[in-house]
TrEMBL record:
This is GGDEF domain-containing protein. One of its GO terms (molecular function) is kinase activity. It comes from the Bacteria. Residues 165-297 form the GGDEF domain. Signal peptide: none annotated. InterPro entries: DGC-Regulatory_Protein, GGDEF_dom, Nucleotide_cyclase, PAS-like_dom_sf, PAS_4, Rev_trsase/Diguanyl_cyclase. Gene3D superfamilies: 3.30.70.270, PAS domain (3.30.450.20). Keywords: Kinase, Transferase. CDD domains: GGDEF. It comes from Marinobacter orientalis. The keyword Transferase applies.
Length: 306
């Protein structure tokens, strides 16, 4: 069997797998001469991610090019190395398959065929993803939690060191949220926190990181930002938080205290950066809140006196 024909047959097998079609147990599709696909059901069209009119008369190899490319690579590697290959396939498919490609040798120790076995691992992949997301994201706001934030901070520090660039770390603590929480109830307070998370996220770039540390505290990593740029961004963010929120059709007003520190100006250690930003945030609160406070050396000296 030619390689292209083998790949066509393998894709055909994957596309017809019951696990791929959810509730539709019997998708209608027929094959014409030369293994050309004649789809008669929209389920098949969804599987190959192609409109019905574009799928008519095309072979599986033409419909699922990414999958075909990976299959071709796996089969070619199996033949050229003579070794079993393990691959996962999911391109263009709503399911994920763990496939094994085993070379079959004849009496002359020549490879005359490749046997493929497939196992649907979609459920396992979904479970793994949910576990990963639960471990790294805040369930209330959908933002990265402290664990993922710490990893992002360390990665940002390494990147900035490599590029010889600066970045800012901001700690944000919401003011007047306690009074707000006492009035509409805990569920409304949770909805307010979700709105706050959305508003903060809308004020930053895609390359930045917004995280919720817990309670009413958020943190923000602003990449490639110096002290002046960070102060401008923090001031704009503070003004954004002071705009009215609407929770359960009721206007809610809050404010925030923001502390910021700069890498590498203030320090070069992730843990110390977090400590500095935290000190600056509490300095902002001690001065009445609703303000931005940059980390200064006197904050460390003041702390050492206690």
């Amino acid at each position: 069997m030619k390689l292209a024909q083998f790949i066509d047959a393998e894709i055909e097998q994957l596309l017809k797998a019951r696990e791929l079609i959810g509730e539709a147990l019997d998708p209608a599709a027929s094959s014409g001469p030369g293994a050309r696909r004649l789809p008669t059901d929209t389920v098949i069209d969804d599987l190959v991610n192609a409109p019905y009119r574009d799928a008519i008369g095309k072979a599986p190899l033409e419909l699922v090019l990414d999958l075909a490319t990976e299959l071709r690579d796996a089969i070619t590697t199996t033949v050229t190395t003579g070794q079993t290959q393990h691959r996962e396939f999911h391109h263009g498919l709503p399911s994920c398959f763990d496939c094994q490609f085993v070379p079959v040798f004849n009496d002359r120790n020549e490879i005359e065929a490749v046997v493929k076995t497939s196992r649907d691992i979609t459920g396992r992949k979904q479970t793994d993803y949910q576990l990963w997301r639960s471990a790294n994201f805040d369930t209330l706001t959908g933002l990265p939690n402290q664990r993922l934030f710490t990893d992002r901070l360390e990665q940002t520090l390494l990147e900035a060191t490599r590029k010889d660039s600066s970045f800012a770390l901001l700690f944000i603590d919401l003011d007047r949220l306690q009074q707000t929480s006492d009035q509409p109830g805990h569920e409304a307070a949770d909805r307010l926190l979700a709105l706050v998370a959305d508003r903060i996220s809308s004020r930053v770039r895609a390359m930045d990181t917004v995280a919720r540390l817990g309670g009413k505290q958020f943190t923000l990593i602003l990449k490639e930002t110096d002290r002046d740029g960070a102060k401008q961004a923090a001031t704009a963010l503070l003004a954004s938080l002071e705009r009215t929120f609407e929770v359960d059709s009721q206007p809610v007003h809050i404010a925030g205290s923001i502390g910021l520190t700069i890498f590498p100006d203030d320090c070069r250690d992730a843990e110390e950066l977090m400590h500095n930003a935290d000190q600056a945030m509490y300095a902002a609160k001690e001065h009445g809140g609703q303000q931005v406070q940059c980390y200064e050396a006197w904050m460390a000296q003041s702390e050492s006196q206690f």
